[in-house]
């Protein structure tokens, strides 16, 4: 499989405080790549750097071979328009209906007519099972529905790369599983390259094609690979503890 994203010798820091150093990994086209680890290990910081919100202290992030942080802002914005991002809380505009939320990126970054935009909006809401809620406001939705609505907006511009920040946070197990199934459908049907930040074991084993485990103590990555393979083959007690929540019995699909 062709490499879609490559992270090389990446150091992340806030002023003089080092968050992560020496990160190296590749994300293949069309796979679901998991960034996992405990609270405070730097998962969200890494994601913010990958989507253009925080520059790295050192190192490179390459999208299809192009160095994301070594180009001018205009070129970087072009790449960022190929991103779809689902933030933890959905990040919906509370004063806009679902239809208006999904339409916003199309109005800003496409040349579609009003009627064409409405057609795309209904299509995207249909992809996440919310076509009957187009005129609802975010406050009228459950947590799981807000996540799916945020995902519909993230899909508005047909992104090549989709990023999820703790997608299952705050969801009940059934809603979390529905979201996992939706992520799998996006990979299988749209061919998108997907990066997911999560510490939820059920999601890690259900959707992860590949993964990296970040460690707050060493400020680096201590394991990379398919989650099932990592659990089956690793003897690192930190990895085993994370993937079993401290229990000796393995976890799996």
Descriptive labels:
253 residues; alpha/beta; Rossmann fold; six-stranded mixed β-sheet; four-stranded antiparallel β-sheet; 37% helix; globular
Give an account of the 3D structure.
This protein has 253 residues and is an alpha/beta fold. It folds into 2 domains: 153 residues, Rossmann fold (3-Layer(aba) Sandwich), CATH 3.40.50; 68 residues, no CATH class. The chain contains 9 helices and 10 strands. The protein has a 6-stranded mixed beta sheet with strand order 6-7-8-3-9-10, with helices on both faces. A 4-stranded antiparallel beta sheet has the order 2-1-4-5, with helices on one face. Helix 3 crosses helix 4. 37% of the residues are buried. The C terminus is likely disordered.
Short structural description:
The chain is of the alpha/beta class. It has helices at residues 43-50, 73-80, 98-109, 114-127, 143-154, 173-190, 201-207, 227-233, 237-244, and strands at 3-14, 17-28, 32-36, 58-63, 66-67, 83-86, 161-165, 193-198, 210-215, 220-225.
CATH architecture of the largest domain: 3-Layer(aba) Sandwich
- Helix percentage range: 25-40%
H/E order of the elements?
Answer: EEEHEEHEHHHEHEHEEHH
* Strands in their spatial order, largest beta sheet: 6-7-8-3-9-10
What is the assigned CATH homologous superfamily of the largest domain?
Answer: P-loop containing nucleotide triphosphate hydrolases
First-residue to last-residue Cα separation: 24 Å
Helix-strand category: alpha/beta
Number of helices: 9
- The count of domains is 2
Q: Biggest sheet: strands, sense, closure?
A: 6 strands, mixed
Rg estimate, integer Å:
18 Å
Instruction: Tell me the strand percentage band.
Output: 25-35%
């Amino acid at each position: 499989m062709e490499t879609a994203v490559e992270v090389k010798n990446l150091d992340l820091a806030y002023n003089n405080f080092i968050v992560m150093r020496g990160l190296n990994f590749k994300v293949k086209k069309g796979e679901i790549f998991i960034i996992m680890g405990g609270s405070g290990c730097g998962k969200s910081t890494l994601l913010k750097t990958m989507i253009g919100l925080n520059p790295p202290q050192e190192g490179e992030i390459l999208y299809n071979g192009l160095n994301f942080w070594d180009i001018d802002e205009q070129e970087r914005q072009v790449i960022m328009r190929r991103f779809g991002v689902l933030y933890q809380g959905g990040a919906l505009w509370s004063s806009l209906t679902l239809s208006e939320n999904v339409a916003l990126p199309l109005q800003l970054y496409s040349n579609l007519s009003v009627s064409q935009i409405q057609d795309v909006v209904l299509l995207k809401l249909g992809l996440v099972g919310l076509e009957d809620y187009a005129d609802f406001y975010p406050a009228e939705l459950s947590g799981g529905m807000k996540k799916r609505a945020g995902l519909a907006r993230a899909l508005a511009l047909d992104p090549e790369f989709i990023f999820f920040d703790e997608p299952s946070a705050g969801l009940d197990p059934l809603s979390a599983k529905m979201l996992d199934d939706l992520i799998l459908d996006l990979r299988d049907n749209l061919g998108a390259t997907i990066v997911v930040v999560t510490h939820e074991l059920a999601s890690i084993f259900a959707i992860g094609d590949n993964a990296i485990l970040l460690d707050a103590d060493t400020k680096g990555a201590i394991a990379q690979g398919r989650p099932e393979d990592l659990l089956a083959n690793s003897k690192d007690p930190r990895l085993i503890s994370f993937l079993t929540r401290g229990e000796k019995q393995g976890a799996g699909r």
